[in-house]
Amino acid sequence: MNFARYEQTHPARESALIGLLNIRSSSLYVFCLSQMTEDDEYISSVSWIQEGNVLAVGTNSAQIQLYDANRMSRIRTMGGHASRVGSLAWNGPLLSSGSRDASIINHDVRVQNHHVASLLSHQQEVCGLKWSPDGTMLASGGNDNQLNIWEAGEGSNGGQRPKFTLTEHTAAVKALAWCPWQRGLLASGGGTADRTLRFWNVNGSGSCVNSIDTKSQVCSIVWNPNEKELVTSHGFSQNQLTLWKYPSLARVVELPGHTSRVLHMAL
Fold it and tell me: Three-state SS across the chain?
């Protein structure tokens, strides 16, 4: 099993590194992704394919690079965006990328002409992307405070609109998570000016079926696959982790300790 960690070396223009840790052999492999040509270039997103050994890497130079973790080599580089790629999400061989240019591009990594669809609705940077477990819907959150729900197959040359555009959040929507045990239930979290955790029925009318003010910026959400509960991580002002029961949204426990916002979690 491989885990990825990325960092920027110093001085900044030298390179960006990915570290791959194989927990079975306790081996750590570090390799250079790309030569950085500007002081402010960096890796802006990473995502593992669900089945296989391919790691997708987004950069602030608008590139998406694919790496074979077994061979420790780059497979291909894909373009299409005009600015940094801050979010990535896989759906089988389909890779969705969200950018600061406000667009989402679907890439079929099996073919040379990888750009198969553009999803255009956000007005600012796309900062969150998640495919539903059954692969039928893509949720996208943006710095425009919008949450969009796209059906699989949309966007190909036709400029189709999202199935739902949900505007109840009042800050950027980065935190997104599909419920693993209730089809069509999506959780989303708003930024510092919003702080709200919301739940949506996207199989029906797209209505908000539950919500709660968390008192802090919501940075990420992870559902428990075995129990009716979820964990949220937070930024300003408390930088805590919170375990919630669902659907009551009773706080089970709050875990302090971090001194700055907690951007990512894994369960």
Answer: CEEEEEEECCCCCCCEEEEEEECCCCEEEEEEEECCCCCCCCEEEEEECCCCCEEEEEECCCCEEEEECCCCEEEEEECCCCCCEEEEEEECCEEEEEECCCEEEEEECCCCCCEEEEEECCCCCEEEEEECCCCCEEEEEECCCCEEEEECCCCCCCCCCCCEEECCCCCCEEEEEECCCCCCEEEEEECCCCCEEEEEECCCCCEEEEEEECCCCEEEEEECCCCCEEEEEECCCCCCEEEEECCCCCEEEEECCCCCCCCCCCC
Q: What is the pLDDT along the chain (267 residues), one digit of tens a residue?
A: 444 544 444 333 445 666 666 666 655 566 555 544 555 778 899 999 999 999 999 999 999 999 998 888 889 999 999 999 999 999 999 999 999 999 999 999 999 999 999 999 999 999 999 999 999 999 999 999 999 999 997 655 445 789 999 999 999 999 999 999 999 999 999 999 999 999 999 998 999 999 999 999 999 999 999 999 999 999 999 999 999 999 999 999 999 999 999 999 988
Q: pTM, whole model, 2 decimals?
A: 0.89
